[in-house]
Specification:
single chain; alpha/beta; seven-stranded mixed β-sheet; 18 strands; 34% helix; globular
Length: 528
């Protein structure tokens, strides 16, 4: 089957849905959202802490937020990107509110603001401790109420379409690469359909599922990054994988590991060893409110020194009623496994959480491939540099969705559908009966990445990861050519591609910077 849409959005988190709503409002063509599972299962849903924006002008200002972001990013963030996000944030917050998103407010009607690690002021808007889920809810309702947006749930984008599919030779040195849409797997027919588009927008989220322990849902397999890389698009900063310092240590629960929001440390939570001793004073003067990279490495080091599988977060000194009111979901989750956070320490450990790199885009969200934009976690705007400042991701997504919507609407009339694109060719392939091979390979990717490309790295570990991933790549490509396309094997291909990119970029950076810490070049603040 061949479908035609003016705007094809691949992914349905805050970036994809807000972009779709903005272009649909302009009435300049048909809009389709390709959703890998259902609308409510996106990384956005799992974001607990909040969304950063300067709103209290009596205490806060743009310059403070800009400097906090630059410092957290180890001063390699793109200042133009930082300024765009920070300065445009307030208007995008108002747009979210207009779409029905509810943020907590004080009795006087002003936003109830939290403070998180790396922020110099209280500027985090939130909805209790499930802000992402509230944003996703508000946007889902707006999307479903919009007659100009078609949503295709349980559809899986296999590849983006470029000149390569028309027989042209496309390399990383090709001066122009154009995107004509995507090949998309239909779960009902088990066929790969052709989706032609004038503008394609990649909003596929992160890649935490390539690690054994992650706060991300199992669908976060780096699909967009892998598709664009295979299409010879430019990716950047893949070595900067953010590990959230505090997920709930629960050996009985596979990923996603339950996130203990950074707002809990902003609230006054103290990191301790299980025996009650504090340790952050050894690593940073900001103690438990230091940026995530410092806290995650500190916890990792303490776990190794003491032979622990977790450390603890303590909020028992805070008023019990206040804790339950601020963090109702965390309270109930911990209670379900026998932990009363008003009386007991919370067992926590780091987990893969956020990809700061991704598909390189300009200030308008446009990738190196013409007619292809990338938004949200799969993109690399330059905002995060070496380390993302807490709660900057959701605001980046909506600000860049706005920039991309404006830019693509200005250029949509210059584009047309490419009618010469061939349909997907699966002649000669067969149904895959060897699902165990895929399942086992997925486990191996997680073991390789967690064992060798984790919080602390070395060239020896990275080369070992490279060799293991290369073997998995060759095996998987041979299988992919033999069998019909399925979600399982496509996800595996993407995970291997992303694992390779993280490893390659980590090997190429000959310094410890931001989230990338290597024992071969161990220059870091607390080692000086």
């Amino acid at each position: 089957m061949v479908y035609k849409y003016d705007f094809l959005v691949i992914g349905a988190g805050v970036a994809g849905m807000s972009y779709a709503l903005k272009v649909a409002r302009a009435k300049k063509g048909r809009v389709c959202i390709i959703c890998k599972t259902t609308l409510d299962e996106a990384n956005t849903t799992f974001a607990q802490g909040g969304i950063a924006s300067v709103t209290n002008l009596e205490l806060d200002n743009f310059d403070k937020h800009i400097e906090d972001t630059m410092i957290a990013g180890d001063n390699i963030s793109d200042r133009k990107a930082v300024e765009q996000v920070v300065r445009r944030a307030p208007e995008q917050i108002q747009e979210l509110v207009g779409w029905g998103v509810n943020f907590d407010r004080r009795a006087d009607g002003d936003f109830d603001l939290h403070r998180e690690g790396g922020h110099s002021e209280f500027r985090i808007l939130h909805h209790a401790d499930d802000t992402g889920a509230e944003i996703q809810r508000g946007l889902m309702e707006a999307v479903r109420a919009c007659p100009d947006i078609e949503v295709k749930e349980h559809h899986f984008a296999v590849e983006i379409i470029t000149q390569h599919h028309l027989g042209a030779k496309v390399t990383r040195r090709s001066p122009y690469i154009n995107c004509y849409g995507a090949y998309v797997l239909n779960p009902d027919t088990e066929k790969v359909d052709t989706y032609l588009s004038k503008v394609t927008v990649m909003c596929t989220g992160g890649c935490g599922a390539v690690y054994q322990t992650t706060s991300n849902p199992v669908i976060a397999t780096g699909d967009g990054i892998a598709m664009v890389y295979r299409a010879k698009g430019t990716v950047q900063d893949m070595e900067f994988v953010q590990f959230h310092p505090t997920v709930l240590h629960n050996p009985n629960e596979a990923h996603p590991a339950y996130l203990i929001t950074e707002a809990m440390r902003g609230y006054g939570g103290i990191l301790r060893l299980p025996d009650g001793r504090t340790f952050m004073e050894k690593y940073d003067e900001r103690l438990s409110l230091a940026p995530r990279d410092i806290v995650a490495r500190a916890i990792d080091k303490e776990m190794k020194i003491h032979g622990l599988d977790h450390v603890c977060l303590d909020v028992t000194h805070k008023p019990a009623d206040e804790t339950r009111a601020h963090f109702p979901n965390i309270y109930q989750k911990c209670l379900s496994i026998g932990i009363d956070i008003t009386k007991d320490y919370i067992p926590v450990r780091p987990a893969a959480h956020y990809m700061c790199g991704g598909i390189k885009v300009d200030i308008n969200g446009l990738s190196s491939i013409d007619q292809l934009y990338a938004l949200g976690e799969c993109s690399c705007t330059g905002l995060h540099g070496g380390n993302r400042l807490a709660s900057n991701s959701l605001i980046e997504a909506v600000v860049y969705a706005d920039a991309a919507a404006r830019h693509s609407l200005e250029h949509i009339d210059l584009y047309d559908f490419n009618e010469r694109v061939p349909e997907w060719d699966d002649e000669g392939t067969m149904t895959n009966e060897e699902k165990v091979l895929i399942t086992q390979s997925v486990k191996e990717v997680g073991q390789i990445m967690s064992g060798y490309v984790g919080i602390v790295r070395s060239d020896l570990r990275l080369h070992r990861a490279w060799d293991r991933l290369d073997m998995l790549y060759e095996e998987t490509e041979r299988l992919f050519k033999r069998v019909k396309a399925s979600k399982d094997i496509c996800e595996l291909r993407n995970m291997i591609n992303v694992g390779y990119l993280i490893t390659r970029f980590a090997l190429e950076r000959k310094e410890s910077r931001g989230l990338h810490f290597t024992t071969d070049y161990p220059v870091h603040a607390y080692d000086k």
